């Protein structure tokens, strides 16, 4: 029988599984809260506890209560694994079904010119993007003192490592020679992926764990995911393929969760302390331009392949949806004058200030 959330004998609310495993038993010991240490030591970076595993970095956010944010999905290690085990079985079944139907044989860039760029360059290159996302999330999970944020970031890292591996497995199933015309290493050389690579590399040089959570889940993904969806779902479906759309639609559920968690985090920290609104707005101003560049670079690929709506329409719809989400928290997209220029970006973005 499930435990009641209220104890009538004690007259108090019982702690649920999520709170017990995030607020009470997950989180970092933070030297900044320990008065037995000298102030100059407490304010230093890269300090370990006696266990050697508890490290934190400061954030610009004002977080008097580290539990101000709650995962809207209330995932714990147990519930996350139960959920993802079912998703993995669905993907395994999809691959086996596609093999049995010989569906992968049709995924050949030579036979399907409209899919050539996706098969030859996009799928092989994107595994590196997901791996980069996972590194960013792992960093945040390692350095935040907040147990609720740690849980979210760690599970997101698991998701993105899973996506990277699944894209490798997908590439294995493509017919021999399907990528014969591909660049030797699309992630490093294929022009449409270079803005995304630049975004990932810049973000990995950023030290603020909370900023990293926002820039990935509340800036990049809302702007980039619609273009990615067009390449993995709309275009293959228009060319008679069902494997790629079904494959990504299963993984896309993770990305939807990540974006919802990003929105919830921004809303929670602003509600917790109004001063955080300007800080989150500054992060949006700094990262919107490179995020939009990453999505826009895929526009010519989408339009050349045909089968999806014109990229201009995809971009307009994505921006409108994102701006509506920002408005819910009293935020707004970056003004044109605030967008970081290419020459300024190495200084303005990705370095601790």
Order of helices and strands: EEHHHHHHHHHHHHH
The total beta strand count reads 2
Terminal-residue CA separation = 52 Å
The low-confidence parts are 45-54, 339-353
Counting helices, strands and paired strands, the structural category is mainly alpha
CATH architecture of the largest domain: Orthogonal Bundle
The number of helical runs is 13
What is the CATH first-level class name of the largest domain?
Answer: Mainly Alpha
InterPro entries: Ferritin-like_SF, Phenol_Hydrox, RNR-like
Pfam families: Phenol_Hydrox
Protein name: Propane 2-monooxygenase
Keywords: Monooxygenase, Oxidoreductase
Please supply descriptive tags for the structure shown above:
globular, disordered C terminus, 13 helices, 353 residues, single chain, monooxygenase, Ribonucleotide Reductase, subunit A, two-stranded antiparallel sheet, mainly alpha, Propane 2-monooxygenase, Ferritin-like_SF
Short summary:
Keywords: Monooxygenase, Oxidoreductase. By secondary structure, this protein is an all-alpha fold. The N and C termini lie far apart (52 Å).
């Amino acid at each position: 029988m499930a435990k009641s959330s209220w104890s009538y004998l004690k007259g108090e609310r019982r702690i649920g599984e999520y709170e017990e495993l995030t607020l009470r038993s997950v989180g970092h010991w933070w030297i900044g809260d320990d008065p037995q240490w000298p102030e100059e030591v407490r304010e230093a970076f890269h300090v370990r506890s006696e266990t050697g595993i508890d490290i934190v970095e400061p954030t610009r956010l004002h977080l008097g209560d580290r539990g101000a944010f709650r995962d809207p999905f209330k995932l714990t290690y147990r519930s996350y694994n139960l959920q993802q085990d079912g998703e993995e079985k669905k993907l395994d079944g999809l691959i086996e079904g596609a093999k049995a139907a010989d569906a992968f044989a049709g995924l050949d860039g030579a036979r399907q010119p409209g899919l050539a760029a996706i098969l030859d360059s996009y799928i092989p290159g994107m595994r590196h993007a997901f791996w980069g996302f996972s590194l960013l999330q792992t960093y945040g999970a390692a350095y935040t003192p907040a147990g609720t944020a740690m849980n979210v970031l760690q599970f997101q890292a698991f998701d993105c490592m899973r996506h990277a591996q699944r894209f490798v497995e997908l590439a294995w199933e493509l017919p021999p020679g399907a990528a014969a015309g591909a660049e030797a290493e699309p992630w490093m050389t294929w022009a449409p992926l270079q803005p995304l690579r630049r975004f990932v590399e810049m973000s990995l040089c950023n030290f603020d764990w909370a900023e990293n959570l926002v820039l990935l889940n509340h800036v990049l993904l809302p702007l980039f995911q619609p273009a990615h969806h067009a390449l993995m779902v709309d275009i293959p479906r228009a060319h008679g393929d069902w494997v790629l759309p079904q494959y990504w639609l299963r993984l896309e559920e993770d990305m939807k969760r990540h974006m919802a968690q990003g929105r919830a985090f921004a809303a929670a920290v602003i509600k917790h302390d109004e001063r955080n609104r300007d800080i989150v707005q500054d992060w949006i101003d700094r990262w919107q331009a490179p995020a939009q560049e990453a999505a826009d670079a895929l526009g010519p690929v989408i339009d050349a392949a045909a089968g999806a709506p014109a990229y201009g329409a995809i971009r307009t719809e994505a921006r409108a949806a994102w701006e509506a989400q920002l408005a819910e928290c009293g935020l707004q997209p970056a003004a044109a004058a605030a967008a970081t220029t290419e020459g300024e970006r190495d200084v303005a973005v990705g370095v601790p200030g």
